[in-house]
Specification:
CATH architecture of the largest domain: Beta Barrel
Order of helices and strands: HHEEEEEHEEEEEEEEEHEEHEEHEEE
Mean pLDDT: 83
Largest sheet: 7 strands, antiparallel
Low-confidence stretches: none
Shape: elongated
Radius of gyration: 33 Å
CATH superfamily of the largest domain: Trypsin-like serine proteases
Distance between the termini: 106 Å
Number of strands: 21
Strand content: 25-35%
CATH topology of the largest domain: Thrombin, subunit H
Helix content: 10-25%
Number of helices: 6
Structural class: alpha+beta
């Protein structure tokens, strides 16, 4: 082999080795750049055991299992409600005259709970008010039409009947008088129309009447949002101890849960249910006022229903009611009880404090069914 050919072979070998070295180096750098890793293997050691064993949290594990079992048993009895209808808005001109605007189409969402095998559904009166088209979505996704059996605006309860045949899975009424502040509860419903949801909390307070329009309410810390109205508040036995009704929100334009929700006690809801179904509905006394305790004495009026007996009696927002038909008013609950026990169409004498002076007014007891209680007008404070 001559020297020229030998040099040629050496050059070829050098070229091939150099080419392979460059190729391998570039491929490795490109791969590392894509994966964000160096060519060296990253060491990853994942933990295989929990930081605490199940034997050390047996109570919490049992609570988890029991909560899931409770929800599984209750949720099939909760329905989502979609409504549609026409509504006319009332407004008042500069001279105090009331007008009714043109009808406009409205839609709504809410919740309900099945309370009989025949398909009777309990919900709030305000969920279905003025909306004749009502469809219910059950937990299994089936959609059913429903009709209104009747309603009781003073308790904010309505009874619907599923148009299809049953049997349906119903929940039992519990005894709301047995519930105590601090007891655990679950609120179930259709918040914001997103579908059945479950939240939990405790009973925060009992007997929270906000106006003479309604009964004393249960206060709960279980999160309740728009769309939850009409759904059940259940105890740890899966019994209905309340019907979720409303929330307290400082933002009336975009209401949202702020830790204070209210439910109609099951004893009042069950009483209204039987009265509606059996057509024996009784009427509680009504003046049409939202109230709050006033220190040191009396009860302040913070809202009135337009055209109600309260407005006809010239009662105003800011008045402090000192006595009712000769009885000194102890607090808001006491006054509401006196009003609701008064016979319909009876006249009562009210002693009030207004702008530094006492006055005596006479009011005639009415029925809430005769007025649009949702149109209540508030002063500076709103519920």
């Amino acid at each position: 082999m001559n020297d020229g050919f030998r040099r040629f072979l050496v050059l070829v070998v050098v070229f091939v080795v150099a080419f392979l070295a460059v190729y391998i180096a570039r491929t490795d750098r490109f791969s590392s750049w894509q994966t964000g890793k160096s060519s060296a293997e990253e060491k990853v050691t994942l933990r295989l055991n929990p930081v605490i064993s199940a034997n050390e949290v047996q109570v919490l594990a049992a609570i988890n299992q029991e909560s899931a079992a409770l929800v599984d048993a209750v949720v099939p009895s909760v329905v989502s409600i979609d409504t549609a209808g026409l509504r006319q808005k009332r407004f008042r001109d500069y001279y105090g005259r009331t007008y009714v605007g043109p009808p406009r189409a409205v839609q709504g969402i809410g919740s309900g709970v099945i309370v009989s095998e025949e398909g009777h559904v309990l919900t709030n009166h305000h969920v279905i008010q003025g909306k004749p088209i009502i469809n219910l979505t059950l937990h299994d996704g089936t959609i059913h039409s429903a009709r209104v059996i009747g309603s009781d605006p003073t308790v904010d309860i309505a009874v619907l009947k599923i148009n299809d045949s049953g049997p349906f899975q119903a929940l039992k009424f519990g005894d709301s008088s047995e519930i105590k502040v601090g007891h655990a509860v679950f609120a179930i419903g259709n918040p914001f129309g997103i579908g059945t949801s479950v939240t939990d909390g405790i009973i925060s307070a009992k007997q929270r009447p906000l106006s003479d329009i309604e009964v004393g309410l249960l206060q709960t810390s279980a999160p309740i949002n728009p769309g939850n109205s009409g759904g059940p508040l259940v105890n740890i036995n899966g019994e209905i101890i309340g019907i979720n009704s409303r929330i307290y929100s400082s933002d009336q334009n975009s209401p949202g849960f702020q830790g204070i929700g209210f439910a109609i006690p099951s004893n009042d809801a069950q009483r209204s249910f039987h009265e509606i179904v059996n057509k024996t509905q009784s009427h509680r006394g009504f003046l049409g006022m939202a109230l709050q305790d006033n220190e040191p004495v009396g009860v302040s009026i913070i809202g009135v229903v337009p055209g109600s007996p309260a407005t006809q009696a010239k009662l105003q927002i800011g008045d402090v009611i000192l006595s009712y038909d000769g009885k000194q008013v102890r607090n808001m609950s006491h006054l509401i009880s006196l009003i609701q026990r008064s016979p319909i169409n009876s006249e009562v004498n009210l002693k009030i404090w207004r702008e530094g002076n006492t006055q005596n007014l006479t009011a005639r007891i009415g029925k809430a069914n005769d007025y649009d209680t949702n149109a209540i007008q508030f002063g500076d404070r709103q519920e």
